[in-house]
Amino acid sequence: MVRSPAPLWVVLLVVVSAAAACAATPFGPPPFESGPSATGSLAERCATATAAFLAAMDAAGRPGTTTWPTPKPSAFRRAGKVEGWVVRPVDREDFEPPKRYEPGLVLSVDGRFHRLDSELRGWGQRDFPHYQHTVSLEPVEPPGDEALLAGLTALRTAHAGGSTP
After folding, report:
1. Which residues does 47 contact at the CB level (< 8 Å), separation at least 6?
2. What is the four-CA torsion angle of 74, 77, 82, 88, rounded to 10 degrees?
3. Is the dihedral of CA 79, 63, 103, 47 positive or negative?
4. Closest CA to 33 of 19, 22, 44, 17
5. Beta strands in 96-140 (DSSP E)
6. Helices 42-59 and 8-22 sit at what angle, rounded to 10 degrees?
7. 65-119: per-residue pLDDT in tens?
8. Nearest to 115 by CA among 133, 99, 127, 132
9. Do residues 144 and 46 lie in contact, with contact meaning Cβ atoms separated by under 8 Å?
10. What does the pLDDT look like over 38-51, one tens digit per residue?
């Protein structure tokens, strides 16, 4: 079942409230709570953590962003690009059994989550293995799990110059 995205006014309300909280300290509100003491549903906490992360990174000048190409070229054969942070890297094992592939997750600077894929390239070449990363142009449903909260906290700590107060 596909869930429709949140209405724009809900997203703006979360972003505005997170921005107000971030104004109190140089690196934003305290780290995201992920234990049983946290209030609200897991999906609400993930949405709040995402909005707080984006507000803090915008205030800091968007440190650590990377730009990836999208797999399909857009109009006039120009490949689209997505700029953001890797929340979860691609998890893959190509050479040892059992082989596995789990796509990664990217949070774009506009607040949408995208699927991060990698393709193994360079068979028979000197620089083998070479992984080419692409990001889906269409946003994906944000995962509502503890791993997302942990990934956002780790990213925020890494790009804020230390732990948040």
Report:
1. 6, 14, 142
2. 90
3. negative
4. 44
5. 100-102, 104-108, 113-121, 130-135
6. 60
7. 999 888 776 667 677 789 999 999 998 887 788 888 889 999 999 999 999 998 8
8. 133
9. yes
10. 567 888 999 999 99
The full set of domain ranges for the chain reads 8-159
Structure tokens at 136: 């889906």
Instruction: Give CA–CA dist 114/106, Å, rounded.
Output: 5
pLDDT in tens, 14-38: 444 444 444 434 444 444 444 444 5
Return the amino acid letter for 67.
T
Average pLDDT, the chain: 75
Chain centroid to CA 46 = 11
Q: Tell me if 115 sits within 8 A of 140, measured CB to CB.
A: yes
Per-residue tokens: 71: 């797999």
Q: Enter the tokens of residue 164.
A: 């948040």
Q: Looking up tokens 């992984």, which residue turns up?
A: 131
In sequence order, which residues have a C-beta less than 8 Å from that of residue 28 and are 6 or more positions away? 18, 21, 22, 52, 55, 56, 59, 156, 160, 164
Q: How far apart are CA 157 and CA 60, in angstroms?
A: 12
Q: Whole-angstrom Cα distance, residue 29 to residue 61?
A: 17
The pTM of the full predicted model, rounded to 2 decimals, is 0.67
